[in-house]
Amino acid sequence: MTQLLSHAEIDAWADDPRGPVALHLKQKLLPVEGEGGVIFPPTYADIGYNIDELADGTRVATIDSVGAQANRMEPIFKTAPAGRPENPLSRLVPQIDIAYGNAKLVSILEAGHRLGDAIVRASELKDEARAAFDLHLDNNDSSAIARLAPTSLVFGVWDSRDTQAKLPRIVQAVVRAWDVAPLRRSAQYNPPIDYAALEVFSPEEKAKQEGDPKSPLAKRGFVHVPAGAAPGGIVARGPIERDVTVNLVALRRLDGEKGRELRRYILGLALVAAAEPPEAFLRQGCLLTPDPDHPGAWTAVGRDGRRIPVALTAEGALDYAAAAARAFGVGRNRTVEFRKALAQEDLAEGDKKKAGKKAKAG
Questions:
Q1: Cβ atoms < 10 Å from Cβ of 326
Q2: Which of 18, 172, 202, 350 is deepest in the core (most CB within 10 A)?
Q3: Dist CA 183 CA 236 (whole Å)
Q4: Based on the structure, what is the number of domains in the chain?
Q5: Residue 167 lies in a domain
């Protein structure tokens, strides 16, 4: 039987060391074209689609990786652009923008490596970010990170280019398609006119370069160019599934100033991120929505492996997160400056470390 959640019950997930180890959601997704529709996974250098074959011959395709899903979820906390309705989730986290170039801004919520990103080290946040990482390393105190960049605790961060501080993901999501068959596609470009007939180039040059996609005339779109045997998407004969996990063991290891309130605050953000409807448009040719005939179900996974259904909704998660944010205290909003000199110093520091490693190896 599904249990309704009170704030006290959610608090126990953060507070009770004997509580469940994780929350898990499994969602079945469908292409907007319907069951069996062709979808396009991401392509990776050297391998194309990431398709693994199991021992029984079943082929499983990665549709959206853990990192890609995190990068889609994190900006849900960003302030809405001017002219759009207010985003209530933006009040849950500090809104920090880094100003660069000609009055351009980039939100820290869009930095790929979060608080450990190069743009942070090349800005006025550098010393503050380093101090926050050092506080975590020296005292197991994550409160400074939580007030500066709390989503770094939710989605994980590794300050690999500086302090080496590393915090695991609390929210993890991935999309996979099962029992897939890859397709191929071909195309043909036909120029609207015969440029050789207009003496832009000679008929001999046209005959020589036509059909070769690497030829200068083909690259500029002046001759016929066939394209064949390119990846053409996949058909999933099995389900397309999105798995979302909230790691409550990692959450309960967080500590620091106002430790209990800190853990509840990060749990609130994690629940909001996990319960929000997923981004539907993953890439061209891959538009997926939840299957209304097979709604996803949240379960709490106990230390003994028992799975208990829980009624976690986006509305309930936001209500809890707002209360937890008030209790902990959200960091201040601000805009900081990108510093070219800091970026150059960081590059020089990287060169020194590289030279040092080579000297040791020698």
A1: 13
A2: 172
A3: 11
A4: 2
A5: yes
Whether residue 331 is contained in a domain is answered as yes
Range of the structural domain that residue 322 is part of? 7-173+240-353
Task: In whole angstroms, give the CA distance from residue 32 to residue 16.
Answer: 42
Q: Do 43 and 112 fall into the same domain?
A: yes
pLDDT digits (tens, 9 = 90+) for 170-213: 999 999 999 999 999 888 899 999 999 999 999 999 999 998 98
The domain boundary residue, chosen from 233, 263, 278: 233
Q: What does the alpha-carbon distance between residue 147 and residue 144 come to, in Å, rounded to a whole number?
A: 5
Q: State pLDDT tens for residues 123-162.
A: 999 999 999 999 999 999 999 999 999 999 999 999 999 9
Using CA atoms, how far apart are residues 29 and 131, in angstroms rounded to an integer? Answer: 42
Sequence-ordered strand ranges (E) for the chain: 22-31, 38-39, 43-44, 48-49, 51-53, 59-64, 96-100, 104-107, 157-158, 166-167, 171-178, 180-189, 225-236, 240-247, 281-283, 286-290, 297-301, 307-310, 334-337
CA nearest to 259, candidates 12, 22, 4, 15: 15
Gap between the Cα atoms of 23 and 252, Å rounded: 13
239: Cα within 13 Å, side-chain hemisphere: 13
Identify whether residues 21 and 71 lie together within a single domain: yes
| Domain end position, chosen among 189, 208, 233 | 233
Positions in the chain short of pLDDT 50 = 1-2
Residue for token digits 């319907």?
Answer: 34
336: β partners: 98
Question: Cα separations (Å) of 6 from 15, 68, 87, 253, 318?
Answer: 14, 32, 24, 23, 13
What pLDDT is attached to residue 354? 63
* 22-31 and 240-247 beta bridge pairing: antiparallel
Question: How far is Cα 341 from Cα 339, in angstroms, rounded to an integer?
Answer: 5
Cβ atoms 333, 283 nearer than 8 A: no
Amino acid at residue number 33: E
pLDDT of residue 5: 86
Q: Which helix (H) or strand (E) holds 259?
A: helix 259-275
The continuous run of DSSP H or E covering 251 comes out as helix 248-252
